[in-house]
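Changelog-adjacent note: as of this version, every example in the card shows the full chain rather than a window. The one below runs 190 residues end to end.
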Amino acid sequence: MSQWYYSKLGIMQGPVPETELLQMICSGEIDGANLVWKEGMPDWLPLSRVPELLGQTQSNTPVARTDMADVLDKPELSFPVRQPVGSVPLPQPLAYQGNYIAPIIPTYMWQSVVATVVGLPFCCALAFPLGIVAIVFAAKVEGLRVQGDILGATTASNNAKTWMIISFAITGLSLVMGVISIVQTAVFGP
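Full-length structure tokens:
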């Protein structure tokens, strides 16, 4: 049997077995304006919009669809009621509480930009495009993290780091080779 949550005076109650919820509906303890939720539902809904519960009630309580249609048609009523900023929102079941904080995943954006810009003046034909690849991966990280794709964001972060390091290494290698060439020319002549 399903476990249900319901709101009463803006406070989450439950979980309660479906039979107990049906008894509360029949007794009039809760009506069609009360919000209900159970695991598997995408969001809280007014009881009047949950046909699986309404179809099981046997009495003529205020939950009946004909009675609730009048309530729902009134423009001054809206479900759920939005509270002003700074107030305490309607508590959600554990699966929907907003206390999950996605991990911070480094983007390596500024490092990738530096690797690209530093590679440009040294005429590193390979370092510059690899720096661009690092920037592209770095740009994907935050969007994927916000969408909840933690694995994709971590992969993009690791790719940005890898290509940024390769770009820096090629630039550094080109710089060292240039210095060696200048020293060789100075010591041994042209």
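Structural remarks: Strands lie at 3-8, 11-17, 35-38, 45-46.
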